[in-house]
Amino acid sequence: MKVGFVGGGVMGEAIIKGVLAKGIARPDDIVVNDISRARCDLLNKQYGVNVVADNRQAVEGADVVVLAIKPQELPKVLRELKGVTARKLVISIIAGATLDTLCQGLGHNCVVRSMPNMPAQIGEGMTVWTTASEVDEKQKNMAQSILAALGEELYVSAEKYIDMATAVSGSGPAYVFLVIEALTDAGVHIGLPRDMAEKMVIQTVLGSARSVEATGKHPAELKNKVTSPGGTTAEGLLQLESGGLRSLLLRAVIAAYEKSKSLGAK
């Protein structure tokens, strides 16, 4: 599979790393252009991929084109690529860029809109994606194999779910990192050395997430198993509920969702 990358930043690199690791493409099958020559040099040196200085060159011989640029670069890139990517599958990871914007800008409907998240950089990502009308089954399979190289992937039939995914799985790692940071600082506050607190918190978060996945039980059921009547956990949960943690997370997700929709409307 020949893949052309327009953009070779952090997430572009994550996809390159993933498709190479999974054997989906070889270094010679990948062509990259990025506005930063330093990024191009780094990708060439580290992964052996081909780098070019022009977006049209990057996509010319590709079966699949990956748009991994910043939203503000999109209008210029669409002008450059209009008519050039016909009959090629185009996968966008650009936040807020709607299928309508992408299809009109490129001049065809063979487009995938996806929302990966930050853990994709270590192959533990969650990517939600959907397709425009001209994407056939073979191309869907190609898109799925590329996005699965980042971790877990989930196809959705309606584009509206992409903005929702942006608010939950896209922004979600930041919420989890904040919880990890806060729990670690709390451990230090009560007297734990920071390295000990960090180790405890990280494994607690990992183990808790894996417990939900492995058991298939509702998180509330697992929470109740940890919470003894009149015990320490019950006391801690009382403070979290009194402080509005659940409500704050809800408000954070709603705010991120509304922001995602507004970006797409511009």
Q: What secondary-structure arrangement, pairings included, does this model have?
A:
Elements: E1 3-6, H1 10-21, E2 30-33, H2 37-47, E3 50-51, H3 55-59, E4 64-67, H4 74-81, E5 89-92, H5 99-106, E6 111-115, E7 125-131, H6 137-148, E8 151-155, H7 160-170, H8 172-189, H9 194-215, H10 219-226, H11 232-242, H12 245-265
Parallel strand pairs: 1-2, 1-4, 2-3, 4-5, 5-6, 7-8
Antiparallel strand pairs: 6-7
Keywords for this structure?
alpha/beta; single chain; eight-stranded mixed sheet; 266 residues; ProC C-terminal domain-like fold; Rossmann fold; 8 strands
Number of structurally distinct domains: 2
Number of strands: 8
- CATH fold group of the largest domain: Rossmann fold
Radius of gyration: 21 Å
Q: Low-confidence segments, ≥5 residues, pLDDT <50? A: none
Number of helices: 12
Quick structural gist:
The protein is α/β, with parallel strands linked by helices. The chain has 12 helices and 8 strands.
Structure description:
This protein has 266 residues and is an alpha/beta fold. It has 2 domains: 3-157, Rossmann fold, CATH 3.40.50.720; 172-265, ProC C-terminal domain-like (ProC C-terminal domain-like fold, Orthogonal Bundle), CATH 1.10.3730. 55% of the residues lie in helices and 13% in strands. The protein contains 12 helices and 8 strands. The chain has helices at 10-21, 37-47, 55-59, 74-81, 99-106, 137-148, 160-170, 172-189, 194-215, 219-226, 232-242, 245-265, and strands at 3-6, 30-33, 50-51, 64-67, 89-92, 111-115, 125-131, 151-155. It has an 8-stranded mixed β-sheet with strand order 3-2-1-4-5-6-7-8, with helices on both faces. Strand 4, helix 4 (74-81) and strand 5 (89-92) form a beta-alpha-beta unit. Helix 7 (160-170) packs across helix 12 (245-265) and helix 8 (172-189) crosses helix 9 (194-215). It is elongated and about 65 Å long. The two termini are 34 Å apart.
